[in-house]
Amino acid sequence: MLTHDIGLFWLMGWVLTFWLVYFQYYWFPQLQPQSFLLRVGLLAAAYSTVNTLVMLSQQEWLALLPAVGLIGYELVRMPRRYRRYISLFLDVTILVYLTIETLHAASVSLVVWLTSKAFTTGLRGVVTVLVIDSVLFTVLSLGLWLTRAPMENLFQGILGRFSQYLLLGLMIGLLLVFLGLETVLQLAQEPTGNILLLAVLMGFLIIGVAISLYLVMQTHLQREHLAAQRYDQEFQEQYTTELEGQMAEVRKFRHDYQNMLLGLGGYLADRDYANFRQLYINIRSGWTTSNAADLTIEDLENVPKIGVRYIIYHDYLIARKAGVQLYVVIPQPINETLDLLRQLGEIVRRTLEPVIPLVAQGQPKVITLELETTREAIDYRLTFPVCEDTQILAHYRLRAPKWQLDLSNLDQGLTLKMTVRLSVKRTWGQVAVHISRN
């Protein structure tokens, strides 16, 4: 304990806990509550108050109560759909705790080395240490900014796999090593002088963990890059096949049209209208409606390759085979994390595929798919024709005399913060999904 002053002890606990909770949610933006910084400050104040009371009680068996209470409260408050992140959340918590303790120990050692132990344990010394801590933590948060998207993708990649629990075991082992070193140094003759040694040892351990995480992240990104290339190749192959089919139909039509024109002169000269009509019937009977896509690469230029483009194009071909025209309106490029794109692709698939056969039964056979993105949210809308007496039965269900649309599984397994709205206006129905970025 750096100081025995109650006020300074509470202040130090509040500052360190504030940064601890802040970094806990750094790679989990979907878990951040509204008024995040205010919530973090209040949670840090509650923890520091309980920790101060435990210190005053001088009951050693209560030493872990504040930490257990803090983690328990956070896990209980975690929404049910995010419970699968618990082990990863604990991994980050341990890593953040060790990093904060190491940097704090380095700050204390620096102030003691530059001044004295008496100055460091006083008001000005504690404030100096906390200022250095805050500067280091701020620089760390800025330096880690570019790792947010890769880490989010990494977490999504190891969810439900053995590596998820292997990482948790590694972090627990690292925590036990740290606590053991801390206990040994506290029992030494000059614990204050050994703070620097503790910081150096833990610094090496954390650097090793950081390098390991970096290598795992790079491996994961390489795997995702290969998956993106595979999706793109499948899309290009399917598009090329459809385009070749379309060109074959065009060439056949051109050949038949030329035959009709060449034969027209002779038939007109002989006034043989019956044989000309028979020629037209013979040629026309060989024509078939092409399922080749009218959708071009340029139409899908703003659609991400991973998770969305292939699904839209695949469902577009299904719609064409069912005689349904699908119009895609995406005015702005969509650049999101791989996890969000995968879930967005699932939303498109789960809404579009059930609607296509329903629209094919009526008139007009038209579906409009819209995707718009802003700084705050992504809006997805699917508009399609319905009967005038179509009713909204529940939040996810539409019922017409000849069909029923059930989208109750739309958000199953998805972790996005989204709201779904079904609406009917005369002869048009719409599924609107609002996906919040915060």
Automatic annotation (TrEMBL):
The chain crosses the membrane at residues 6-27, 36-55, 61-76, 88-114, 126-146, 166-189, 195-216. The keyword Transmembrane applies. It comes from the Bacteria. One of its GO terms (molecular function) is identical protein binding. Keywords: Membrane, Transmembrane, Transmembrane helix. This is Signal transduction protein. The keyword Transmembrane helix applies.
